Amino acid sequence: MIDVGVKIANSSNIEDLVQIDREVIGDDHRREFIRMAVEEERCLIIASEYAVEGFLIHDKNFFNSSFISLVIIAPSARRKGRASALLQHFVSIAPTEKVFSSTNLSNQAMKKVFEANGFVQSGTIDNLDDGDPELIYFKMK
C-alpha cells in the first residue's frame, strides 16, 4: 500500500500543482494564484511517496470565516478519497469555527464529496458562470 499524506505546500511543489491544474482545466492561468497561496501557506497538498496527487487552497476572506476556494485532484488519483482527505484535514486545522466552500451546480462529483464529508448546502450565487449557479457549502468545525 502506498502511504499518502497531507501537508502544507512549499515552493518546490508549485510546478507540480500548476501541472495538475493544467491537466484538469486545460491551461495554467491560475499559476500566480497558486504561487501566492503557496507563499502565504494557504495551500495544502496530498502526496504519495511518488508524486503530488492534489491540492486545496484556502483563505479567511469569506466574512471572516475559513473558505476553501479550490480543491483539485489529479485525474489519475481521483475516486481514491484524496479530496475527502484534504477537506477533513483542513477542517481539523481551520483557524475559524465555520468553514465554507462552493462548487457549480453542474459539478456532481464535488457536491457528493462535500455531502459525504458533512458539509451542508448554505446558499446559491447566480451570475458567476452563465446558467450554472454556484452552490455554497458550510461545515461547523
From TrEMBL:
Keyword Transferase (UniProt): yes
CDD domains referenced in this protein's UniProt entry, alphabetically: NAT_SF (cd04301)
N-acetyltransferase domain sequence ranges: 4-141
Keyword Transferase: yes
UniProtKB keywords: Transferase
PROSITE patterns, sorted: GNAT
GO molecular function: acyltransferase activity, transferring groups other than amino-acyl groups
Matches recorded under SUPFAM superfamilies: Acyl-CoA N-acyltransferases (Nat)
Highest taxon above the source species: Bacteria
Name this polypeptide is given: N-acetyltransferase
Organism: Anaerobacillus alkaliphilus
Regions crossing the membrane: none
